[in-house]
Every structure is written in C-alpha cells, then in structure tokens.
C-alpha cells in the first residue's frame, strides 16, 4: 500500500485501563468516552500561537495553526487536518441528528465533529475539543 493512503499508519491500541492510567480525567472523558468540553472554558479556543496540534492520546500530528480560525463557537476550529490521513470520520447519530465525528486515525480517540459551515476554500469547520489536543509551539 502506498504511503499517504491511510493504510500504512501504525495503529495505537491500548486497553481501557491503560488509557485511564495515561490520560488525565478530562482527556479520558473526551478521547475515550466521546465527551465534549465547555465552550470558552478550554485551553486552545483563543490560542493564536504558531505551531502544531497533536493528539493528546498518541501524539499523532493532527492540525496546523495555519488552518485554525476563530469560529466564534468557543472551541478550537480548523478548516482542514494537517493531512487527509491524520483523521478518520464516523457517523454520529446521537441527539436525534446525524453529525460527522472526527477521530484520530492512529488511536481512534474522539476529537470532535466536522461541519459544512466553515470558511472557504474548504468550507469545513473542524470543531475540536482542546482536551483531545496537545499544542506544540513552532517558531
Ligand atoms: Fe491519537
């Protein structure tokens, strides 16, 4: 399989007990239990520094600050992932609607949802939980 098609990424698989030990309570609730944090009360929604956002569970590089914009929602929002292989999508049919859940392609951790009301050119709004991310500053 050619690299870049999503089939070559080494998956991270851990038991629930392992995740519980390694993650903070917030990270565990978001990444493993698909929780959602409060808007405007999270680490990165207003972060304007230059760098990369990694998966807090496995370190997979997910988003660049170049793709981040202020959506006004109170959650960190991006127009696209750092590469198409970084994330995967799942139908989320909770709350009597169908949303598209975004998960880390390496560890399966829940990151947030993607919506079609983002700015051009992608028109996408990747609405992420800060608790599922770890920011690394780059100058
Ligand atoms: Fe991950």
Explain this structure.
It is a single chain. The chain has a single domain, classed as Metal Binding Protein, Guanine Nucleotide Exchange Factor, Chain A (Beta Complex). It contains two helices and nine strands. The chain has helices at about 15-20, 25-30; strands at about 50-55, 60-65, 70, 75-80, 85-90, 100-105, 110-115, 125-130, 135. The strands form two sheets. Strands 3-4-8-7-6-5 form a six-stranded antiparallel β-sheet, with no helix packed on it. It has a three-stranded antiparallel β-sheet with strand order 2-1-9, with no helix packed on it. Bound molecules: fe (iii) ion. Fe (iii) ion binds next to loops.
Summarize the structure.
Helices cover 10% and strands 29% of the residues. It has helices at residues 16-22, 25-31; strands at 51-55, 61-64, 68-69, 77-78, 87-92, 99-104, 110-115, 125-128, 133-137.
Question: How many domains in all?
Answer: 1
User: What's the end-to-end separation, in Å?
Assistant: 34 Å
Overall geometric form: globular
Q: Element order, helices and strands?
A: HHEEEEEEEEE
Query: What is the annotated CATH architecture?
Result: Beta Complex
Proportion of beta-strand residues: 25-35%
| CATH domain fold name | Metal Binding Protein, Guanine Nucleotide Exchange Factor, Chain A
Report the CATH C-level class. Answer: Mainly Beta
Cα-atom Rg, whole angstroms? 14 Å
- Provide the low-confidence segments as ranges: none
Ligands bound to this protein structure = fe (iii) ion
Whole-number average pLDDT? 94
In the CATH hierarchy, what is the superfamily? Answer: Peptide methionine sulfoxide reductase
């Amino acid at each position: 399989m050619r690299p870049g098609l999503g089939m070559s990424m080494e998956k991270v698989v851990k038991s629930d007990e392992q995740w519980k030990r390694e993650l903070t309570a917030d990270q565990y609730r978001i990444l493993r239990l698909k929780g959602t944090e409060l808007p405007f009360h999270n680490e990165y929604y207003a972060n304007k520094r230059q760098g990369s956002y990694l998966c807090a569970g496995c370190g997979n590089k997910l988003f660049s600050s170049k793709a981040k914009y202020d959506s006004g929602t109170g959650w960190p929002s991006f127009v696209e992932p750092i590469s198409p292989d970084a994330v995967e999508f799942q139908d989320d049919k909770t709350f009597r609607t169908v949303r598209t859940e975004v998960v880390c392609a390496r560890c399966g951790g829940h990151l947030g949802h993607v919506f079609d009301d983002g700015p051009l050119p992608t028109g996408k709004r990747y609405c992420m939980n800060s608790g599922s991310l770890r920011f690394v500053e780059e100058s």
